């Protein structure tokens, strides 16, 4: 019986969804907060140190410091800055879209401890004597920039000026200092230096008693310097000393180009996925296009709702999240196609296929969620943003790719208008009759000639050779560690015209930043990349940016990491990988058995090691986003492995009891052949996106994308040729040792029957 009302309901639901998205998508996109790598800006990690001996850095002190930093940032008009306390003695500041990065960075870390002293460095007044908001930029009678101060107590200032005046010339000077260091600074030493190198702000002669609250500070100021000086005084002094241990600064043009390139690459990749799903899976593919569009929209909605910041790796995570959502659709579509080939009707095949695929989908995505959670916990900055987006993507894929797809597909299937298996890419000639008693285990596949179990020793040999060769390669070439792990400074210079390596080297030498390791990159050779072993000081960063901007017309991007942070990142990366592996093996052991968990971890280590070796051979830079890529591959690889193990377990259950190794080998081979099509299709869809990111995306995520590509290829190999074979070998050893057979294991089903429409 055909039910037109189901079709009408489907059309109305889809029309309602796309109308809602179409009318609000512009606002949603406008509300997305872009990270500094997409709009320019800077990020800095400060280590908080005590100003005085005996001062303890408590959470209360850190909170007071963040409040003072926030006050200063407000002076620069930055919208929604990010200031976070990390651990017991660190504060991370992110300012995206800031026009005047140099001034902000210079003034943020200044303790702004204003003091008025005599020539003997005795303190006479300090910042507490300044009226709140009492500093302002101004001009003197000669139209020279000055800073005016309003003090709280005129009588106290009169007393101070009386004391200084009585010291007589040439010692009757009121010296104004900002961040005077006791035991280090002195007027006697600083006065010997040229005016432009002196640390004190000004030194004015006092020839009369001044009974006033109005004070003028003059010096060799520029207009901008008086504005910044006044702003930081009004914001208040910091209760601690801030030492910069990590920083990254991205020029606005770099951010804009990165955003445009990566969004374009993502759109191209997603459109190719849509085309593949439609042509190969037909009706399920059409449904997946609808739900994937809704999925992407919902990711942005949730992203905005939690006030998250979208970074370059975050965009990659959204695109890769689409790939994972596709996997859920492919899993279901493949199971439906199997049931159709067995001889079931479209309605029964849809019901059975949806139910049977649910367990594999949930198991696979939960293990990926575990890897993403570990990455979030140990990640920093953009990597944490990547993990956040990936977690959101995984959770929302349950709503759209699992539940939403099945509701919409159920409307069409149960309408009675799509009873022809051709709608699912299956011709009637490939269908059996239910009377034949054929099960999905008996169905032929495109891979029936492949004997995976019989060739397992060859697979072991290949992997062993890779392991030995990899150890040799790493011993000879080692890893090309980026500044994230080795400390130092990484610089990118952008030009409107093609750059020549030797010319850039000569220019760097000319301005005092000599570097022989200059790499020219970019589509039009307009980007120069170089690394310095030493981390730049704050002043060096400011000087470098000013000179390069003047020469090339674009502010360069700089990342500086101290040795402390580099070692810490490396340690956290190892913790992350170890914890992810431990969590996965425990989960797989509970849901399946410990031998499968061990096989999964062996295949994961195989993948990770292979990626590391390839990066060593190609001399690609290993940075913190590389760790994000590795953990993402851990998620994808375990996803593939779980689907394979789920099918092995299901086929064992159908046999109730397996007594011989030959029978077990047949089950494993059949299971691998049955899941091979799904694995290839899933990986291909994600590879399409990754290749688009490599060739069309921003250069800053190119290594990230290359690591993903390598991992995806090795992941499918290890899931089939390593993980399953390790389990088979361990199972055979158990059968030999204990003389036992493999019996059906009752598995707990996730959830209940599928949504009924």
Automatic annotation (TrEMBL):
Any Pfam family matching the protein: Sec_GG
Location comes to: Cell membrane
**Major subcellular location class:** membrane
Q: Where is the Protein export membrane protein SecD/SecF C-terminal domain?
A: 244-402, 554-731
Q: Does the keyword Membrane apply?
A: yes
Membrane topology label: Multi-pass membrane protein
Ribosomal protein as UniProt keyword: no
| Quaternary state and interactors | Forms a complex with SecD. Part of the essential Sec protein translocation apparatus which comprises SecA, SecYEG and auxiliary proteins SecDF. Other proteins may also be involved.
Family designation: Belongs to the SecD/SecF family. SecD subfamily. Belongs to the SecD/SecF family. SecF subfamily.
Question: Under what name is this protein listed?
Answer: Multifunctional fusion protein
Q: What is the lineage of its organism?
A: Bacteria, Bacillati, Bacillota, Bacilli, Bacillales
């Amino acid at each position: 019986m055909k039910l037109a009302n189901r079709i009408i309901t489907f059309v109305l639901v889809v029309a309602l969804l796309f109308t809602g998205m179409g009318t609000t998508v512009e606002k949603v996109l406008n509300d997305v907060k872009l990270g500094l790598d997409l709009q320019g800006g800077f990020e800095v990690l400060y280590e908080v140190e005590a100003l005085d001996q005996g001062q303890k850095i408590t959470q209360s002190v850190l909170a007071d410091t963040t409040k003072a930093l926030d006050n200063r940032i407000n002076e620069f008009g930055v919208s929604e800055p990010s200031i976070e306390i990390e651990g017991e003695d660190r504060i991370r500041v992110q300012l995206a879209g800031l026009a005047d990065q140099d001034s902000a960075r210079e003034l943020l870390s200044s303790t702004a401890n204003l003091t008025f002293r005599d020539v003997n460095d005795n303190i006479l007044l300090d910042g507490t004597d300044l009226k709140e908001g009492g500093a302002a930029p101004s001009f003197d009678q000669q139209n020279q920039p000055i800073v005016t101060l309003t003090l709280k107590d005129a009588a106290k200032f009169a007393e101070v000026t009386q004391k200084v005046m009585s010291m007589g010339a040439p010692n009757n000077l009121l010296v104004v200092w900002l961040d005077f260091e006791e035991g280090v600074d002195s007027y006697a030493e600083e006065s010997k230096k040229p005016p432009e190198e002196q640390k004190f702000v000004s030194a004015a002669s006092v020839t009369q008693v001044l009974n006033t609250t109005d004070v003028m500070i003059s010096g060799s100021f520029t207009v901008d310097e008086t504005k910044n000086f006044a702003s930081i005084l009004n914001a208040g002094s910091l209760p601690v000393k801030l030492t910069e241990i990590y920083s990254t600064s991205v020029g606005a043009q770099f951010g804009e180009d990165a955003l445009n390139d990566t969004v374009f690459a993502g759109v191209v990749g997603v459109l190719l996925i849509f085309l593949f799903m439609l042509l190969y899976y037909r009706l399920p593919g059409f449904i997946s296009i609808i739900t994937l569009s809704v999925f992407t929209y919902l990711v942005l909605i949730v992203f905005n709702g939690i006030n998250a910041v979208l970074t370059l790796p975050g965009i990659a995570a959204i695109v890769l999240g689409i790939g994972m959502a596709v996997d859920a659709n492919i899993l279901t579509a493949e199971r439906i196609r199997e049931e159709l080939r067995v001889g079931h009707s479209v309605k029964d095949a849809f019901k059975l296929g949806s139910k049977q695929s649910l367990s594999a989908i949930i198991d696979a995505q939960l293990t990926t969620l575990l890897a993403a959670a570990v990455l979030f916990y140990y990640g920093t900055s953009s990597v944490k943003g990547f993990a956040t987006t990936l977690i959101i993507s995984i959770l929302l894929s349950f709503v759209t790719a699992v539940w939403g797809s099945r509701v919409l597909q159920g409307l069409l299937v149960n309408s009675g208008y799509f009873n022809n298996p051709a709608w699912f890419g299956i011709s009637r000639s490939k269908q059996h009759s239910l009377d034949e008693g054929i099960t999905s285990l008996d169905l032929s596949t495109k891979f029936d000639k492949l004997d995976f179990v019989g060739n397992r020793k060859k697979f072991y040999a290949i992997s062993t050779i890779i392991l030995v060769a990899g150890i040799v390669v790493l011993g000879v070439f080692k890893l090309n560690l980026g500044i994230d792990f080795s400390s130092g400074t990484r610089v990118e210079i952008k030009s409107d015209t093609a750059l020549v390596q030797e010319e850039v080297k000569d220019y760097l030498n000319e301005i005092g930043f000599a570097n022989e390791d200059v790499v020219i990159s970019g589509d039009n050779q307009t980007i120069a990349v170089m690394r310095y072993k030493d981390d730049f000081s704050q002043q060096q960063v400011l000087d470098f940016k000013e000179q390069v901007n003047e020469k090339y017309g674009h502010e360069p991007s700089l990342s500086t990491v101290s040795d402390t942070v580099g070692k810490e990142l490396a340690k956290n990366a190892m913790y992350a990988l170890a914890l992810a592996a431990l969590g996965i093996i425990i989960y797989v052991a509970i849901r399946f058995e410990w031998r499968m968990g061990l096989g999964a971890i062996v295949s994961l280590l195989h993948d990770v090691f292979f990626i590391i070796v390839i990066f060593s051979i190609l001399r690609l830079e290993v940075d913190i986003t590389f760790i994000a890529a590795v953990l993402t591959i851990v998620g994808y690889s375990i996803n593939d492995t779980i689907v394979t193990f789920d099918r092995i377990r299901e086929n064992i259950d159908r046999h109730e009891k397996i007594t011989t190794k030959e029978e077990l080998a047949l089950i494993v081979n059949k299971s691998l052949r049955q899941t091979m099509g799904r694995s290839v299709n899933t990986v291909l869809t994600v590879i399409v996106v990754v290749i688009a990111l490599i060739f069309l995306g921003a250069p800053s995520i190119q290594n990230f994308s290359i690591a993903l590509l390598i991992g995806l290829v090795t992941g499918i190999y290890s899931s089939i040729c390593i993980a399953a074979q390790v389990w088979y070998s361990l199972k055979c050893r158990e059968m030999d040792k204990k003389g036992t057979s493999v019996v059906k294991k009752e598995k707990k089903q996730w959830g209940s029957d599928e949504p009924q429409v």
